[in-house]
Amino acid sequence: MRDLPQVSHADMANAIRFLAADAVERAASGHPGMPMGMADVATVLFTRFLKYDAAHPRWADRDRFVLSAGHGSMLLYALLHLTGTPGWPIDALRGFRQLGSPAAGHPEYGHGEGIETTTGPLGQGIATAVGMALAEEMDRARFGADIVDHHTWVIAGDGCLMEGISQEAISLAGHLRLKKLIVLWDDNGITIDGGTSAATSEDQRKRFEASGWATLEADGHDPEGIAEAMEQARQSDRPVMIACRTRIGYGAPSKAGTAKCHGSPLGAGELQAAREALGWPHAAFDIPLPVRELWAAAGGRGAEARQDWEVRLAASPRRADFLDHHAGRYPEGWRQALAAHRAALSSKPGAMATRKASGAALEVLTPAIPQMIGGSADLTGSVNTLTKATAPLTAENFGGRYIHYGVREHGMAAVMNGMALHGGYRPYAGTFLVFADYLHPALRLSSLMGLPVTYVLTHDSIGLGEDGPTHQPVETLAMLRATPGLVTLRPADAVEAAEAWEIALDRRDGPTAIVLSRQDLPTLRLDGGVENAARRGGYVLAEAACGPRRVTLIATGSEVEIAYEARALLEAAGIGAAVVSLPSFELFRAQPAAYRAAVLGQRDGVRVGVEAALRFGWDEVIGSEGAFVGMTGFGASAPASVLYQHFGITAVAVAAKARDLLGEAA
Amino acid sequence: MRDLPQVSHADMANAIRFLAADAVERAASGHPGMPMGMADVATVLFTRFLKYDAAHPRWADRDRFVLSAGHGSMLLYALLHLTGTPGWPIDALRGFRQLGSPAAGHPEYGHGEGIETTTGPLGQGIATAVGMALAEEMDRARFGADIVDHHTWVIAGDGCLMEGISQEAISLAGHLRLKKLIVLWDDNGITIDGGTSAATSEDQRKRFEASGWATLEADGHDPEGIAEAMEQARQSDRPVMIACRTRIGYGAPSKAGTAKCHGSPLGAGELQAAREALGWPHAAFDIPLPVRELWAAAGGRGAEARQDWEVRLAASPRRADFLDHHAGRYPEGWRQALAAHRAALSSKPGAMATRKASGAALEVLTPAIPQMIGGSADLTGSVNTLTKATAPLTAENFGGRYIHYGVREHGMAAVMNGMALHGGYRPYAGTFLVFADYLHPALRLSSLMGLPVTYVLTHDSIGLGEDGPTHQPVETLAMLRATPGLVTLRPADAVEAAEAWEIALDRRDGPTAIVLSRQDLPTLRLDGGVENAARRGGYVLAEAACGPRRVTLIATGSEVEIAYEARALLEAAGIGAAVVSLPSFELFRAQPAAYRAAVLGQRDGVRVGVEAALRFGWDEVIGSEGAFVGMTGFGASAPASVLYQHFGITAVAVAAKARDLLGEAA
Q1: Candidates A394, A449, A475, A621, partner chain B, best to mutate (most B CBs within 10 A)
Q2: Is the interface score ipTM higher than 0.85?
């Protein structure tokens, strides 16, 4: 191997700076300030500390790098290009923010190799990184340090640290003592509105220390100082935050250190002036060969470590397990076990809250699938996510499988994203449905990234009773159903609850929300449970019997029972009525039109929807001419049975609506 | 006045404890542990520190008391009953958690006097309290310390402090040095899942101090220690957190200090044992006369202070201003000024992003309405919420009217709720529409409480372009439209943007979301702007001209322009087509059926909806048989015009859909 050229640190960093600034200029859109400010820190990280092999960006034991300040995406793209990561030719950078380029406005997971997670919505990256660092500890506890031994590095900006989710994540990381998590805070004192002093006076080091972190400080433009801090951070027994004092837009003579270089192109004049100030005479997208070579060498720095690792893995008695784990291959038998469970439920009448039925399904599944990692936002006993097979995960026992997330729904969801991204794990966790509101920004990222995370959302309507309107979701189902990529399931009974879990586990490309009742519901599916009927999203649970179908009653979850009773009233009056259970709008929408029309009885009379939630979204199913029995506003505090009467969600009301539509008042 | 009976502090506190535990027992539902644990602290607060006159619970200069740990609602109800607050007879407490009682499961604003805000969703109370304390400072800066001089006291639990929103609020309060804010942390070491040590290791005092708070500590069962800390806290020049070490369920022999008394009734045996342990032989809901008298005296403690205040107010030159301010009476003239502005816009063709049009409307409104308080979550220049009339509000200038909330959407919304609750202010603030996701739990409370808060939500579709899918809302409009009590307006042009602001300001009983484009939109309403057409939610912007209406194109916001162009294509082909602008689903739904049918052309051919968002929710307007041109999933990163083509949201596509429905392919 020939000697590498003599290239200064400044040149290496300037390569990032100008790739970033020139790409933003070309796109006439983007954020040059952050990459220019953090170029020195990133150069030290990628040339001396980060464990990676650019040619093999999916190496399981690589260090993870998360750009939490996702608007500085060009920093990441410049690094991926310079290190020679596959799929990042210079044209990708020229195509920054253009359709089809992997170099999207913000880093998008799946758009190109080396993007470990989607960032942009502030605070999500740091919280997701906590999940990655946690997964690393979990992997290490399971497979040993000779196979699993990597760090998670995060670049976070002031905005990330102002978002509340960051506190949830920081607090949990400190509690779990995730010592391989290192956050590089881009302490530039600037946000979009100007100096951070307009909105914050926080002592960030003290704040992190209050959560059990170690903290360090470095001049973000002094490579040796940065290196020293990083070296120290790698030895820590706790997560580490390094406050990197930087100048935003470093090198831009008139705009550096101000919000002016945060979110818009520098402009041709300023960009040229920056070239002169930094001694970078090269044209846009032109990196001189010596710099290019040294960056390529940095990209290959980890090749030997990776090869050694491959050798160790090959020799490991845990090799097969590790590969299965990371490929998400579950051990044989879980489906059969679940099918037997479902068949047993479906063979005899009974009553059970679906949250408990979900817990029963988890008791079957978690012993069978070691990848499943449970948890709850401090509602364990209510959401039934803890099983015998899942011991608590603690700082002393990363082999555990149940995470007490604390009252931190938002952080919980992001941490689940991080575990799923890291690889291998199938995280699920529970809270009340109404609090899906607190975690939705992270759930949105589960959807956007296509991560198989399962949300267990219980206490799903006024059926929760006395806790009242703050706890009673009326719009939350609509919010979930409106989220693209998410499959929302609201099972009607214990059988459908078991089916929902099978559907969730079969999904590899997106999240699932399982929405469950607090109150007991009778088993309505007494068909032996051979077929997973919920898989079609909706199906005829009971066909009209007294004559041809004139009424179709369509309901979900706890209201299927009400529809069932309404059907009896109608049939007793000689009106043929069918009940459709519709656990998932999304799965039903994906069925052939003929199937949907047949189920909904589109050519057979009138339709009534029943759900203890708002009508919003239901016209897709019942048509604007259909009737709906549900909520019209917020709930109230009272026992559940009183509330169902009070809000008129009863079998009598459903039957009456149907007769109204038929023009046959009782 | 005769001497008050000798009653021990313990008896006073036990009155709270047993009212709470007995009410929970009677309801067979609720949270006894927190009221029993915090009864001593609350007793000291309400008998010695809190400035209030129970007979006049709306006295403007009262101290505010916020029970952020809302599940401990019986603590508040017991205090309201004992102090003699109107509307809180013992029967109200007997009716705890029953329909119609003011004593709902969680404190519900508006259900009874003395409930300062709705709490229950954790973290909301403390963040709302920051808004109240801020409003106090603002009032004081405006009206002087002789009229405005009160504290805001908060009881917060571990759960409140784990939620991310608490960090946003704490940080902002510290930054603004809200010295009249005092948080009493119920440091009992217990959450639902058990010991807080399962999920957190945080040094809370250090955390608050990092944000610029003073902190103190007290034994929460030592009245003198509590009093000393409260006394000290009232002298602080910064917000204060007092860590009150308490035992949850204090007095319940076998359940105190454990999660078992957190969220369920104690049970008859344990309750009786608590009676014996605490020396409280009285029957359920029976408070001995001496205790009752002393509590009633506490409720009247502030009567003299209130009367003195009334005298000072009567003598104040600012009296009329103060009363107008608190009654929410705006100075004359704002409507005329806005009408003139609208008429000017509507009288000549032009093009302007609606976010800029909103800013222009604010330039007219903010000088006219001093109650309007602006702000943004660090996107001031993008959301156009800052006007010439609104100087920045800082710790040095509470007379300011523009709040730099920082990147803290959730805290921002809760702080706006707090300002609105405190009285007088009309807060509005901006962020990107997609980040409404971050603040929705607080917006939900704006709706539930009926608070006139205005959310300015810009960059409302793929029209924002290059920032890509993380920043492009596709489901957010559905989420807002699904929220009961909220009016969502998506104006089509500058005229409708001005109308939206008039609608928002006329709303006194609920929040408004104004959803705005990043990109320029042509002025389509060139009718002189006399009538506020948006007030009806939807209207015919352009009727079919070439013949009878056969097609109705229904669009919102930036897509109205596309519908307009599609109409031209159809009309050119001899197909009569109308364009309906539908800025608000909610306002339109409230119109008479005949009006809606006429606007939508329900008896005149086919309907096509156009919106750069998902179809979810649109079937209400276009019917399930209608066509829709919009998004079917997440967006992408590219210039806006490219994206509109890419996703097929074009006039050509709209016209083609209409012809398809008519069965007349071009």
Answers
A1: A475
A2: yes
